[in-house]
Amino acid sequence: MRYDAEGIEEVPPESFKSFWLEVKRSYFFRNKQHYLEFMRSCGGRIYSLRGTGRSTSHFVLVGNWRSHGDVTALWYLKGHGEARRALVREAAVRSFQGGVALFVTRPLGEGEAEEFAAWGFMPLYRIVLLERRSRPPDGEPHGVKGVEFIRFRKRHREEVLELDAGAFDAFWRLDARTLDAVASSCSRNLFLLARENGRLAGYAIGGTNGRFGYLQRLGVRDACQGKGIGEALSRRLIDSLSAMGAGVICVNTQEENGAARSLYRKLGFEEIPERRLIMSRKPDSMGWGR
Ligand SMILES: CC(C)(COP(=O)(O)OP(=O)(O)OC[C@H]1O[C@@H](n2cnc3c(N)ncnc32)[C@H](O)[C@@H]1OP(=O)(O)O)[C@@H](O)C(=O)NCCC(=O)NCCS
C-alpha cells in the first residue's frame, strides 16, 4: 500500500495524552508529565496515519534535539512497512518546511539504522557501547592532589552547564532540561563534582536500575584535562554504583572519542561489537526539501 501526505495528519495537542501508553515504551520520557512538558516546550509534534483504526496504530513523534531549535529529532516511530517510510518522510519534510536544518534519529540499533539508510539517511554519529562487571572496590582513595570531590547541589547547575558547553561539541552539549533529565533518569542517581582552587574542574553523573549501573555523563574542563580528574571521578562513581548493587556497569561514547574510549578501557570496560547510530537527513532535491 502507498501513502501520500494526504493520508497523514498532524495530531492536535489536546490529543497528545491518548498517545502516552504507546510513547512510554520508548523509555525516553520518564513519566507522563515529562512527556507532556516536552511536547509543550520542545517543539513536540505527532503525525499519524488516517483511517488505520485506532489513531495510535501508526504514528511518528518528533521534537527538538535538546535545545537546538534548528535540529528535529525523531523520538518514536510506530508502524509497519510502507507506512513507516511515509510517516518519517512527512515528519522530515514538514520539519524542513518549518526551517529546520537537520533531521536526526535517536540512537538506533544497526538493523533499524539500515532501514533509515535505505530512505536516504546518513550516519551522523556512531556510538560505542561498553560494559564492565562490578568488582569489589579496590580500597584506593582515587584522589588527585589539590582536587576536592563533592556531591552536586542545585546551586552548581550553571557552573556544570558552562563546563559542559566547553567540554562537548555543540550537538552533544547539555541544556538545563536535559541535564536535569540525565541526572534523574535512573531509579537511584549519583552526581559528583571535582573542584580545584574553588572552581569546578569536572563532573560525573551515574545511576542504577536494579542490577544495572550506568555512567551517564563525564566531563572535565579543557584546562584541567590530563591530570587524572576524569579517571578519579569515574572510579569514585563506579565504586558507588557497585555499592548501590550494580552487577554490570554500562557506558557509551562516540566512536571517534579516543580519550574516552581509552579511559574506559583503562577502567576495565569492554567494548560491545555492535554500534548504535544516529542517522540524519538534510533538506535536499529528492523531494525531501523545503
Ligand atoms: C574524556 C575525559 C573525561 C578524560 O578526562 P581527563 O581528566 O582528561 O582524563 P585523565 O587525565 O583522568 O586520564 C585518564 C585516562 O584517560 C585516557 N585519556 C585521557 N585523555 C586522553 C587523550 N587526550 N588521548 C588518549 N587517551 C586519553 C588515558 O587512558 C588516561 O590514562 P593515562 O594517563 O594513564 O594515559 C576528558 O577528556 C573530557 O572531558 N572530554 C570531553 C568530554 C567527553 O568526551 N566526555 C566523555 C565522553 S561521554
Description of the molecule:
The longest helix has 17 residues, at 81-97. The protein has 8 helices and 12 strands. Strands 1-2-3-4-5-12-6-11-10-9-8-7 form a 12-stranded mixed sheet. It starts with 7 loop residues before the first strand and ends in a 9-residue tail after the last strand. It has helices spanning 20-23, 32-41, 81-97, 110-118, 157-167, 176-183, 229-243, 258-266, and strands spanning 8-10, 45-49, 59-65, 68-78, 102-105, 122-133, 147-151, 188-196, 199-209, 212-220, 248-254, 270-281. Coenzyme A binds at residues 167-168, 218-220, 225-231, 253, 257-260, 262-263, 266.
Strand order of the largest sheet: 1-2-3-4-5-12-6-11-10-9-8-7
Q: In one word, what is the shape? A: elongated
CATH first level of the largest domain: which class? Alpha Beta
**Sheet with the most strands, sense and barrel status:** 12 strands, mixed
**Name of the CATH homologous superfamily of the largest domain:** Gcn5-related N-acetyltransferase (GNAT)
In DSSP terms (H or I, runs of 4 or more residues), the helix count works out at 8
Category by helix and strand content: alpha+beta
Roughly what is the average pLDDT, rounded to an integer?
A: 93
CATH 2nd-level architecture of the largest domain:
3-Layer(aba) Sandwich
List each distinct ligand once. Answer: coenzyme A
The gyration radius over C-alpha positions equals 21 Å
Total domain modules: 2
Distance, first to last CA: 26 Å
CATH third-tier fold name of the largest domain: Aminopeptidase
Strand residue content: 25-35%
Q: Which quaternary structure do these chains form?
A: single chain
- Count of extended strands: 12
Spans where pLDDT lies below 50 across 5 or more residues? none
Percent helix among the residues?
25-40%
N to C succession of SSEs: EHHEEEHEHEEHHEEEHEHE
